[in-house]
Amino acid sequence: MKIGLFGGTFDPVHLGHLSLARAAAEKFDLGRVYFVPADLPPHKTKRKLTDFQHRFAMLALATAEDKRFVPSLLDAHTGTPNYSVETVRRMKSALGKSDKLYFLIGMDAFKDISTWRKPVELLGECEFIVAARPGHSLGDAARALPASLRPAETELRALSKQRSGTIVLPGATIHLLDELRERVSSTQVRAIAGRSAKQLSRYVPKLVAEYMKKERLYDERASTLESAAANGRRMLSLHQGHRQ
Ligand code: ATP
């Protein structure tokens, strides 16, 4: 079976994540996509993350309706930062001989792949499916590769015209998915978490919106951010009113 591994912080999972997983599953005929929330993501150390249990519960709700989608505890409570190279190896050791693993990732994250732990080894472990962002090309994906895998400049220039497709290199295979429409991010959802469940359902699955309200997730931060924004708008209109 073809299997996708989709890692992330998922704080919270949103419609952009689901549309990436759906697009990848459809295009590559993935029989299963494991959503693997990181307990300790190495790149997100600046802010305190929502408890792993809540992030996992929201993933379970978000993935319930699609039988290909499975929330995974692979990166739960390992006690050390969750490096993708180790996560992938752990998953591969649990797969059968006829299974083939793909790593699912958004272009925003893929752009930093060279800074991840053992990027060359990671890229050699399985094929990558990268979801394009508006304006991005296969050339941008290839340019993000570690220097030892990166194609020559002339090839990169030719690839910059391709908005989707596959590049097969010695040591890495990258598939670029067509641009996705869902522009939402978890940062955005956290900032508007004070809104009603109905309003939040434009960005996260309905059950996730209801769970966020029930558990009062992100409330404090959201109200601070929204009132700061409202204050900013008020200040601006006062200022403009004054000048008129
Ligand atoms: P944050 O805003 O907190 O940084 P995020 O929305 O980027 O979070 P993550 O859990 O960090 O979510 O991302 C997991 C994966 O999903 C990454 O590979 C990221 O590039 C991808 N991703 C995030 N948002 C989208 C989106 N709207 N469309 C496609 N891919 C996305």
Q: Would you give an account of this structure?
A:
The structure is a single chain. It is built from eleven helices and seven strands. It folds into two domains: 2-177, HUPs (Rossmann fold), CATH 3.40.50; 186-243, no CATH class. It is an alpha/beta fold. The protein is globular and about 55 Å long. The mean pLDDT is 91. Strands 3-2-1-4-5-7-6 form a seven-stranded mixed β-sheet, with helices on both faces. Residues 8-11, 16-17, 20, 105-106, 108-109, 131, 180, 182-187 line the site of adenosine-5'-triphosphate.
Q: Give the CATH architecture of the largest domain.
A: 3-Layer(aba) Sandwich
Helix content: 40-55%
CATH topology of the largest domain, by name, is Rossmann fold
CATH superfamily of the largest domain, please? HUPs
% residues in beta strands: 15-25%
Structural class: alpha/beta
Q: What's the overall geometry?
A: globular
Q: What Rg do the Cα atoms give?
A: 20 Å
Key features?
244 residues, alpha/beta, Rossmann fold, seven-stranded mixed beta sheet, 11 helices, 43% helix, 16% strand, binds adenosine-5'-triphosphate
Itemize the secondary structure elements and their pairings.
Layout: E1 2-8, H1 15-28, E2 32-37, H2 52-63, E3 69-71, H3 84-93, E4 100-106, H4 107-110, H5 119-125, E5 127-131, H6 138-143, H7 153-159, E6 165-169, E7 172-177, H8 186-191, H9 197-200, H10 206-214, H11 219-243
Parallel strand pairs: 1-2, 1-4, 2-3, 4-5, 5-7
Antiparallel strand pairs: 6-7
The structure holds adenosine-5'-triphosphate.
